[in-house]
């Protein structure tokens, strides 16, 4: 009895596996359905394909004195131990969907020793093409959407 149940289980598994296979692609070129759409000619898009937007020179800065940390997203994302004052400059251009929605530049300064000896957050700023677009002296993160 046990051998019959095991044999029947294997037979049932084989039937289920062969019955659940993928559809074979249609042989004629006018096939319809998801397989034909996936391999067909790409549809032209309404916007510009690929490419980059106008390049901008972006500078992020953290003010103060002493040592601190910084987390930022500019041309890359990084977390660094830094010596204040600190700045980093990169040339950025929006790509793909960023051209529509913008490219986010984020700068989060870490703690620094204030003149009274207490810890406090460092000030930060973001400059785009020579114009200061964000300045935060309250120790909060700086962010700017570049379009």
Largest sheet: 6 strands, antiparallel
Quick one: overall form?
A: elongated
Average the pLDDT over all residues and give the rounded result.
76
How many helices in DSSP terms?
3
Order of helices and strands: HHEEHEEEEEE
Q: If you compute it from the alpha carbons, what radius of gyration comes out, rounded to the nearest whole angstrom?
A: 29 Å
- The helix content, as a percent range, equals 10-25%
User: Beta-sheet strand percentage?
Assistant: 35-45%
**Low-confidence blocks of residues:** 13-49
Quantity of strands, as a count: 8
Structural class: alpha+beta
Distance N to C terminus: 73 Å
Structural summary, described in words:
This protein has 147 residues and is α+β, with helices and mostly antiparallel strands. Helix content is 19%, strand content 43%. The protein is built from 3 helices and 8 strands, in the order ααββαββββββ. It has helices at 2-19, 34-39, 98-101, and strands at 56-73, 77-92, 103-109, 111-113, 119-121, 124-128, 131-136, 142-146. The protein is elongated. The protein starts with a helix and ends with a strand.
